[in-house]
Design a protein that fits this description.
The protein is α+β, with helices and mostly antiparallel strands. It is 31% helix and 22% strand. Helix 7 runs parallel beside helix 11 (362-369) and helix 9 (270-284) packs across helix 10 (306-319).
Length: 411
């Protein structure tokens, strides 16, 4: 973080800029928060500094001169700003703040780091999108429009999705060779001539964006850890990254306090975990009796088709958020199944059934779809609904919420 004197010198030399904003700051008002949001949102800016307690005037030559006016109560200003950044925005921001004295007056220096692309856009919760979000354009804070939201979410930068970011504390030995071999096996079943099957393991991981070069080191990415990470490494780096299959007695979450539920916790890379989760769900489903015409042997098939369960699990995996520290839960009641997922679809519920899907985890989806571990199709939630109607089953309801950042589908 830069010093107050350094910032004041640059202000008098070249005026306000995309990375520096000066304010009188007699109180922590909306104007300061708008600049905080703009610094956090603007792509590739790297954040910016606010110098609070500074006044200015334009002289006869048209130049802007800045001088220190001071802040009456810097402690209260810091408390108010920190509280507002934590409570008024959709994502709690923690700006760095320090109090310095310049020319005998107290000023507050605030540094706001750029938010991760998976958290953008940052906006006023009460105002909502797009009007509650701001971007830094020149030395001004500009209210966002719909087109800006795509840029802030990284839609204009598909070459570097959020799941392609390297994990600083991860090492190459944190990837499970068993999961990598399983990818090769499943990929060969789908396409024995696939070119990546001939790659060495290091080249294969780099081609799948499971690892990235950071300086002279090779670091696993988020997608690499999710797809191929060892259970011990997942526990260390992502404590909540697991799938809980919960069997509840009765139809309510706490129907019998003495016998609430039993649980199976699965903490493995997706390449190994998804087949286990699918098998656990399918084994518990009631099976229907059917005797086809002209056949002597009956058939017992699950009431819910296997492909429906697979697509539901694929959706939950693809839309989960890794900022919310909560496991994915599959709750099996006596009369329904609920899939509770920390995350929500980027596509609005009113748009289900229309072309185009919006992906949150491009690399994870691409890698998992090639060996058909993730049977993911555009608008899969809509396809689930149609599948249920076709099978004469009952889809009780579904809910996606960007405010609660959760996804729930009930069968």
């Amino acid at each position: 973080m830069r010093t107050a004197q350094d910032l004041l010198t640059e202000l008098n030399a070249s005026d306000e800029s995309p990375r520096i904003e000066a304010k009188r700051a007699r109180e922590a008002g909306r104007s300061i928060l708008e600049t905080v949001i703009a610094f956090a949102n603007e792509p590739s800016l790297g954040g910016g500094h606010l110098l609070l307690g500074v006044n200015w005037e334009i002289n006869d030559k048209g130049d802007t001169r800045y001088w220190v006016e001071g802040v009456a109560d810097p402690d209260k200003l810091q408390r108010d700003l920190a509280s507002q950044c934590a409570s008024m925005l959709n994502v709690a921001l923690r700006p760095e703040m320090s109090v310095e004295r310049v020319d005998g007056c107290a000023v507050v220096v605030v540094f706001v780091a750029e938010a991760d692309v998976s958290q953008k856009p940052i906006y006023f919760t009460a105002t909502g999108l797009p009007k509650g979000a701001y971007r830094r354009v020149g030395s001004t804070d500009q209210r966002c429009v719909d087109e800006d939201l795509w840029v802030l979410r990284g839609a204009s930068q598909p070459q570097m999705g959020p799941d392609m970011a390297p994990i600083p504390d991860a090492q190459l030995h944190d990837l499970d060779p068993v999961a990598i071999d399983e990818y090769r096996r499943l990929r060969a079943l789908v396409n024995p001539q696939a070119e990546e099957l001939a790659y060495e393991t290091s080249d294969l991981l780099e081609a799948l964006s499971a690892v990235r070069r950071v300086g002279d080191q090779i670091k696993p990415t988020l997608a690499g850890m999710v797809l191929f990470g060892k259970a011990m490494a997942l526990r260390r780096l992502f404590p909540a990254l697991r799938v809980d299959y919960v069997r509840v007695v009765g139809t309510q979450w706490v129907d019998d306090p003495e016998s609430r539920f039993t649980s199976v916790d699965i903490r493995q890379p997706l390449m190994l975990a998804l087949p286990k989760v699918e098998a656990a769900v399918m084994d518990d489903l009631p099976k229907g009796f059917r005797l086809p015409e002209g056949e002597l042997q009956s058939q017992q098939t699950p009431l819910l088709p296997r492909k429906v369960i697979r697509e539901a699990l694929a959706n939950a995996v693809m839309h989960r958020s890794y900022q919310d520290h909560s496991p994915m839960q599959i709750v099996r009641y006596s009369n329904r199944i609920e899939i509770l997922n920390p995350g929500f679809s980027l596509k609005n519920m009113s748009s289900l059934g229309s072309p185009r899907s919006r992906l949150r985890r491009c690399c994870t989806k691409s890698t998992g779809q090639k060996p058909r571990v993730l049977v993911f199709v555009p608008c899969a939630v809509w396809r689930l609904m149609l599948g249920y109607r076709y099978q004469s089953s009952s889809l009780i309801g579904n809910a996606m919420s960007s405010k609660s950042r959760c996804f729930c589908i009930i069968y």
